[in-house]
Amino acid sequence: MPTLIIDNQSVTVPEGTNVLEAAQQLGIVVPHFCYHEALGAVGACRLCAMLFIDGPVKGIQMACMVPAKDDMVVSTEAPEAIAYRGQVIEWLMLNHPHDCPVCDEGGECQLQDMTIASGHSVRRYTGKKRTYQNQDLGSFISHEMNRCIQCYRCVRTYQDYCGGTDYGVLGSNQRLYFGRFQDGPLESPFAGNLVDVCPTGVLTNKPYRFTSRFWDLQEAPSVCPHCSLGCATIPGARFRELQRIRSGNNPEVNGCFICDRGRFGYDYVNHPDRPRTPLLHGEELPWNEAIETLLQRLRELIDRHGRDSVALLGSGRSSLEANYLLGCLSKQLGCTAPVYGSHAGRDRAARAAADLPVELSASLADVRNSDLLVLTGADPLAEGPMLAVAIRQAVRNGGRVMICDPRPVELPCSAEYLPCQPQELPQLLSVLSQGGALPDKFQPLAEALQQAQRPVLIGASDLLGATGNTALLAAAQTMNSTERPCRAMVLLPEANSFGAALLAADGPDFEQLLEGMASGRIKALLCLEADPLADCPDRQLLLQGLEKLDFLAVLDHLPSLTAEKADLLLPTTALSEGTGTLINNEGRMQTFTKVFNPGEPLRISSQGSHPPRSFSSVTPGALPCQAWAILAELCDLPVDLTKIRRKLAASESRLAELPNLLAEGPGQRIQTGGKTLPQLPSVATDQVDSLQLLVCETLYGSESLSALSAPLDPVRSQPYLLLHQLDATRLGIANDDLVLLSAGDAQLTLPARLSDRMAAGIIIVPHLRNTELDIFYPGRQPLPCRVEKVSAP
């Protein structure tokens, strides 16, 4: 490890560290633009000049381009270096429009900061400025090309890091243009990261445009709730409204970037139909009466019908603390243990994933460093988008990607496809877990696994199910060794699915709860941020069961289908309005912190005017409470999150580090699993003659929170049906033809799309909420179906 001296301070850094990074470790602020910790250095801006006084390199050099070496003596304060940086910033500012008062980047603009840091204050150039036409880049990004300083960060992020292909640099010398060949929406699902990396106001957040200044926002470290990966985020709020999300930095998870679903899916918090007042049969009532009514009704039913007459339902989108207190409430009432998921198949699959021994669990950092990634039944862009970016980094580092899936899985990098039927996936993983020989069609995979030194097996619960998840983990355990570590990752459906599965343990699942409702044994149901009417695959049976209930209570912050039917509705806070803990798919505990207090956004309560024209001593819409606080009152426990976390850690040794977690940190893996996973027998693959309907998650429109976010409306998928070209030819179907899909009792007319990279005999439809396709549910066995052509486009 080289040791060098910068500004009379000695520092020792790892091999490969550049001098700019070494200076940052000492807390020395060095002006720079093109360097970014996730992108590295290219020496494009020339602003990080330092004077190298002694050592293997001497003279004025760009610090980001010089590797740190022993015996280097460097100065950032030498007059020559200061003068050089001053000249560079003056060149960069020659054509800048100086429109800071109307620029959305004002207050968080790196160009402002570095201009001042470089001592530039007077513009001497009096000639004409270089100007450009701006482009319409879609609904997420605003483009102001005249502000560009040609640092190349946007292109390196969009193309190199995230794999986008429709945005780049054109021109040469002083006429560089960063944009698309023509106007149009950016195609990458990671385009929003351009906002974070651009050091000026060229690329800004369009939904947030002209809304607030950076210094007016309330911000706090948080965790993204839109998938199970647990990316670090920083929400920003003002006027009782969540106005934007920007990426946090967690090197073990998402690094410096997030996906567009995580960035623009925030608006469910501001939804105008969101419940904000306790309601009993549609009538408002005070909180103390609501709590008393809930306890009274539940106790009355237990006294009259027995302990099995009350059921409690938690969820994977509720915090760890709230789900834990739901279990405490069941013990206090003396009723059956809670169910922690409205979809029994997904719940069982999550419980299987929670058995993963901690030493086998793969983080996104492990994925980025892998030399072979095997995707079996996982669609990263739909089920965990930042996993797709992590996979791309592995490929950029020389790794291989092999995909075994019936779907045409898209990735922002090269991959080798081995299409297979859904039924073949458990068989494939079972053979791997036993160290057996793979079928001929999977021989390329067998050869790749033999050569790999750091393989990672990646699956997803919806397609693999509980059996497939167990087989995946068993396969990783079989192939793992000290000399050649093998890791596993399972994508789960919700942000806290892992935590809910841990608490569920061997308890009941939703099928048992549904049977109890259908038989009339269960008289009351309490739902904690769960919407079984939207998530339970057997909606008709559930509706019949709900009709037989004497009492339905719902705690939620969404205008859900189940909340509409509730006898008692208790409004809870959204994630950015509270504090709590989530456990991501690798078993990493991460805390989120309150950003702002709940309240109806000013643009709604005051019809968009500020200051408001009517005044009150009560904040409109401020009644929602944190779910864990409501449950603590129901359990007659102190409403103190620190004490609740200590109580939870004491009751579950795997969560011992929970009280010590910091929201700013990378999180802490729990000590879970550890038992030897069972070796699975070979799974017979049944031949299926009919077409099979496979329901799959999609990037926009499937996830429950982002489905309520208005900024995502322009990119939300429309209903369609996907089939293999061979099947289409046999059925006489062309691309965009209208076809009639028949599955069970359902019949839908949908436009057809064709693909040759999927398994034949499979019909794929996306799971799209609030459309005609929301009658189909993911996480189930494929259904027999028929497809007939109705008409040409």
Automatic annotation (TrEMBL):
One Pfam match: NADH-G_4Fe-4S_3
Essential cofactor(s): [4Fe-4S] cluster; [2Fe-2S] cluster
Domain 4Fe-4S His(Cys)3-ligated-type: 80-119
GO annotation (BP), single: ATP synthesis coupled electron transport
PROSITE patterns: 2FE2S_FER_2 (PS51085), 4FE4S_HC3 (PS51839), 4FE4S_MOW_BIS_MGD (PS51669), COMPLEX1_75K_1 (PS00641), COMPLEX1_75K_2 (PS00642), MOLYBDOPTERIN_PROK_2 (PS00490)
Ranges of residues in domain 4Fe-4S Mo/W bis-MGD-type: 217-273
Keyword annotations from UniProtKB, A to Z: 2Fe-2S, 4Fe-4S, Iron, Iron-sulfur, Membrane, Metal-binding, NAD, Quinone, Translocase, Ubiquinone
Gene3D superfamilies: 2.40.40.20, 3.10.20.740, 3.40.50.740, ADC-like domains, Dimethylsulfoxide Reductase, domain 2
Residue intervals of the 2Fe-2S ferredoxin-type domain: 1-80
Cellular location(s): Membrane
Example of a GO MF term: quinone binding
SUPFAM superfamilies tied to this protein: 2Fe-2S ferredoxin-like (SSF54292), 4Fe-4S ferredoxins (SSF54862), ADC-like (SSF50692), Formate dehydrogenase/DMSO reductase, domains 1-3 (SSF53706)
Catalytic activity: a quinone + NADH + 5 H(+)(in) = a quinol + NAD(+) + 4 H(+)(out)
A cellular component term, taken from the record's GO annotations: membrane
Job of this protein: NDH-1 shuttles electrons from NADH, via FMN and iron-sulfur (Fe-S) centers, to quinones in the respiratory chain. The immediate electron acceptor for the enzyme in this species is believed to be ubiquinone. Couples the redox reaction to proton translocation (for every two electrons transferred, four hydrogen ions are translocated across the cytoplasmic membrane), and thus conserves the redox energy in a proton gradient.
Family that this chain belongs to: Belongs to the complex I 75 kDa subunit family.
Protein name per Swiss-Prot or TrEMBL: NADH dehydrogenase (Quinone) subunit G
Organism annotation: Syntrophotalea acetylenivorans
